Amino acid sequence: MGDDPRAARQLRRITEQLRIAGAIVNDLLDTVRGRNAPPSPTATFDLARVVREAVAWVPRPPRLAIALRLPEDPVVVPGDARRIRQVVVNLVANAVQSLDGHDDSPGIAVTLDFDERAAHVSVRDHGPGIADTLLPRLFEPFVTTRAEGTGLGLALSRQIARDHHGDLRAESVSPAEGGGARFTLTLPRHSVEGP
Ligand SMILES: Nc1ncnc2c1ncn2[C@@H]1O[C@H](COP(=O)(O)OP(=O)(O)OP(=O)(O)O)[C@@H](O)[C@H]1O
Ligand SMILES: [Mg+2]
Q1: What's the CA-to-centroid distance between 135 and ligand 2, angstroms?
Q2: pLDDT digits (tens, 9 = 90+) for 93-109
Q3: Are residues 13 and 48 in the same domain?
Q4: For ligand 1, atom 9: residue with the closest CA
């Protein structure tokens, strides 16, 4: 590559993303084997920053708007930044995919709210929403309606949320409220003792 700084930058990005991809595959295998390490009880991270990074990572059509509603100050939570970033990447990727062919839609809104006890990241799209018959099975592994989907994104994401003593919920938004789907990740603000 010589000393072309652009090539060096791209190679650094590729290396970084390969490392992350490798870690995701290892997580997946650990989850399937049922021996995911619990998040370190002392690790903390800024959830606002993790949400910003996750949104920046998801490939999307250039005209698709993503409204980010984040507090200005850091929102520190306990847990594993890399795994939580993966959850937000999965949710935003699903939202982008739900809008395929809906070029005129109002796009996607990603919001972070918090109080003393918990932080909530919600990802709302204006796609077709989720059929009532699919909703109860949405988080089961291998449930997918996409030709190229694995159906693992939401199953893994909920597992990661629960490993953090949080949760991940899905809802279909009524047509009166504009339709589409909303996924909400909830994480406690303070370490929870015990398993
Ligand atoms: N925002 C959304 N709007 C409508 N349906 C959704 C949305 N997110 C997920 N779904 C539905 O839930 C199914 C499962 O999602 P999940 O992320 O687990 O797997 P996938 O997206 O199909 O595959 P992968 O995540 O491996 O690419 C999707 O195939 C889709 O039918
Ligand atoms: Mg997915």
Answers
A1: 14
A2: 999 999 987 767 789 99
A3: no
A4: 94
